[in-house]
């Protein structure tokens, strides 16, 4: 048997990791400015996270959702407090796609409608409804084309209202900040119109905070920069710091009923212990403050790199644009600079999604390595 070959791989084999560093099987240390696709939030192998998970698995790791699980109650309380989303109810699942799948299903149950409005360059996951609202035909099988979806340009209020006016939309789904699509985002004016128009025409507003949530933008959820209240918020990635967990926050104006949503693994004891540990560390180590401070430092220092044409994003969800495709630069940063960065569907954009505990010294190290790698690419020499 072999692995089903769907991932092109970099030739690096991590065997351990700590905070923002990853160590490979040859003893090389890499600076992790990608957090394994924006997943590592409080840092790799955080001591209290390791202890929380180890202690929990020693007691009980899993039982089904048909028994009481006080960890879920603790999670509701702590998450409500830190996110300031007390007027929502929590449904737990296992991944980002699953969170959006449930969000879209909820919207359809609630409104009795099935059309979904999404945005150009969106990415919402690979399950059936989630991939249908993802703006990438290449990852849709014929099976996924049964959904009714309309894609609109971001920030186009006129197009949005003319679509909502038809009165057949169950929901509008939008990323707080686009991730895979290349860090574009709606303006505050657009998000406010979106909220008002959804209310006016009876469609639910789903905020996909799977990548931009859990403190990555400098606020708990990135939509909180715009002063709006979505009907449903989807989350995953940084939520578990690597433990596979996702969830949706559902406005308490939406009624639940038994059997409406369900899952075997979602909300299990280990997943709850992971998320509770993430929330505690975020709070105790003021990680959202660190995100804002590091963002400022990054923006100050990246100005020194003349090849960078612009910087997109918020907090520690950042993209730097170049006037050349960045695939080779990413490779050189990994192999020569020993730094992980990310790409996106915009080939000119280098994505930076470090753990939220990254330090100013680590950003300085990146800037110097970036300058060296860029210089060596210009002169076509071996780097460093
Ligand atoms: C904004 C957004 N939504 C949904 C997903 C899907 O999450 P998952 O890969 O956990 O299914 C992703 C993953 O990259 C994402 O960035």
Describe it.
- Helix content is 35%, strand content 17%.
- The protein has 384 residues and is of the alpha/beta class.
- Helix 2 packs antiparallel against helix 8, helix 3 (70-83) runs parallel beside helix 8 and helix 9 runs parallel beside helix 11 (360-379).
- The longest helix has 20 residues, at 360-379.
- The model has no long low-confidence stretch (mean pLDDT 97).
- Pyridoxal-5'-phosphate (PLP) is lined by residues 37, 95-97, 100, 123-125, 175, 179-180, 208, 210-211, 236.
Helix content: 25-40%
Low-confidence stretches: none
Total beta strands:
14
According to CATH, the fold-level topology of the largest domain is Aspartate Aminotransferase, domain 2
CATH superfamily of the largest domain: Type I PLP-dependent aspartate aminotransferase-like (Major domain)
Give the count of helical stretches: 11
Summed up:
With 384 residues, this protein is an alpha/beta fold.
Task: Please describe the structure with a list of short key phrases separated by commas or semicolons.
single chain; 384 residues; alpha/beta; Aspartate Aminotransferase, domain 1; Aspartate Aminotransferase, domain 2; 2 domains; 7-stranded mixed β-sheet; 4-stranded mixed β-sheet; 11 helices; 14 strands; 35% helix; binds pyridoxal-5'-phosphate
């Amino acid at each position: 048997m072999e692995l089903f070959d769907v991932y092109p791989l970099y030739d690096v084999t991590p065997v351990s990791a700590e905070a923002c560093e990853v160590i490979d099987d040859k003893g090389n240390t890499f600076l992790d400015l990608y957090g394994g696709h924006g997943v590592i939030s409080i840092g790799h192998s955080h001591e209290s996270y390791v202890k929380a998970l180890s202690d929990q698995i020693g007691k009980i790791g899993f039982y089904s959702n048909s028994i009481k699980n006080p960890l879920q109650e603790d999670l509701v309380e702590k998450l409500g407090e830190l996110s300031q989303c007390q007027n929502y109810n929590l449904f737990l699942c296992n991944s980002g796609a699953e969170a959006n799948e449930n969000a879209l299903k909820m919207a359809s149950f609630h409104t009795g409608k099935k059309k979904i409005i999404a945005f150009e360059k969106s990415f919402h996951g690979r399950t059936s409804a989630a991939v249908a609202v993802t703006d990438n035909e290449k990852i849709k099988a014929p099976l996924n084309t049964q959904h009714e979806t309309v894609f609109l340009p971001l920030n186009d209020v006129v197009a949005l209202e003319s679509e909502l006016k038809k009165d057949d939309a169950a929901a509008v789904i939008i990323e707080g900040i686009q991730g895979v699509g290349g860090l574009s985002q709606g303006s505050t004016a657009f998000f406010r119109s979106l909220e008002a128009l959804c209310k006016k025409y009876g469609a639910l507003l789903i905020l996909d905070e799977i990548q931009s949530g859990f403190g990555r933008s400098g606020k708990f959820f990135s939509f909180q920069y715009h002063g709006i209240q979505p009907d449903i918020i989807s989350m995953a990635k940084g939520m578990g710091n690597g433990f596979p967990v996702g969830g949706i926050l559902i406005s308490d104006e939406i009624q639940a009923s038994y059997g409406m949503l369900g899952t075997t693994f979602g909300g299990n004891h280990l997943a709850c212990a992971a998320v509770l540990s993430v929330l505690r560390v975020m709070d105790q180590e003021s990680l959202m403050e660190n995100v804002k401070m590091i963002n400022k430092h990054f923006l100050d220092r990246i100005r020194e790199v003349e090849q960078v044409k612009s910087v997109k994003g918020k907090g520690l969800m950042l993209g730097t644009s170049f006037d050349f495709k960045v695939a080779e630069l990413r490779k050189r940063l990994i192999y020569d600079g020993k730094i992980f960065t990310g790409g996106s569907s915009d080939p000119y954009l280098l994505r930076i999604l470090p753990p939220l505990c990254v330090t100013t010294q680590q950003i300085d190290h990146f800037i110097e390595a970036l300058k060296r790698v860029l210089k060596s690419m210009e002169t076509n020499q071996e780097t460093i």
